[in-house]
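USER:
Before I trust my own judgement here, I would like a peer's view. Write it directly below this note and I will take it from there.

ASSISTANT:
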Amino acid sequence: MSRYWSNLAQRLSPYVPGEQPKDRKFIKLNTNENPYPPSPKALDAIQKAVNGDLRLYPDPSCTLLREAAAKRWGIKPEQVFAGNGSDEILAFAFAAFFDRTPVLFPDITYSFYPVYAELWDIPYETPLLNKDFSINPDDYKRNSGGVIIPNPNAPTGRALSIDALREIAGAQEKNKRVLVVDEAYIAFADEGGTGAGTGFGALIPYINDHPNLLVIRTLSKDAAFAGLRAGYAAGSEELIEGLVRVKDSFNSYTMGSLALAASSAAVLDVSYYENINRRICLTRNRVTEELRSLGFDVVPSQANFVFASPPEKAHNGIAMTAAALFGILREQGILVRHFKKPRIDRYLRISIGTDEEMDAFLSVCKKAITENNA
């Protein structure tokens, strides 16, 4: 604590990002980055945008990205908001739509949500996930100050169906409150987020049916642009206007010219990203089965990561803890994420890398479990 800090700065508990080491080369399976490169069309757009116009301020309306997202989803540009990554848009959404009545989000979820609530002095309540880490939709239909749900949820990877989310949107519309759906990982649901078979999928096609529904997307995960910082939101024009009012009270120029050029090209290169993200889903499914064969408890995932707990019982009576396996993996040059929190401290969140990276991960796990059971 510092005597120079404001009361706000003193009471904040900031978000802690995943480790980004610089002292040695690791296989990074700890921050849910896409293991494949961005679209060549998007990289080409960056090259073309590197010119003398960089002396000028970027477009404060982020028109390129808004028009690209509108074209991608068949909606109007006025229904799209663009920003410096989904985290920034989420922060704006908390300020724009939530107030003095407690907002609802799961007790186990993206740990930035309580940070935003504290930043804007917004009360919140956290309904408990079910024992299998699934969300109970009925918990989010009651009177509240609004709802925010990541779909799929993080760090568990479980997802709600389109129908379940639309029911929540309808209930909150009656309450005159906003439902924010954070779709950072939806492209990995059902091997592409189409909703085929199980009802999971993107909600943007339904924003015209629900004026209180705001859907937020990031280009960090499925578009392989974590280093670029770009995201967008889709919703009714009145919701978008609310975000713009907050943005322009904070920073009118949230996206640089290079980010706008690259992100607009990436959003429209659907076939490229469907191909690489389908590969990630296939790898995820294989890793899930192999971990289960080793005795891991693996939560069914619709994201680009798995949430897995090492075997509780070993042949020698000694269990391999998540913390111990985290340390073993790190020693072998593999980073995963361990959340030291109640209910989930037995689990590791493992991002899905290339097949070669996941083979290296599985090899260390197999050796660690075998030696522990010897």
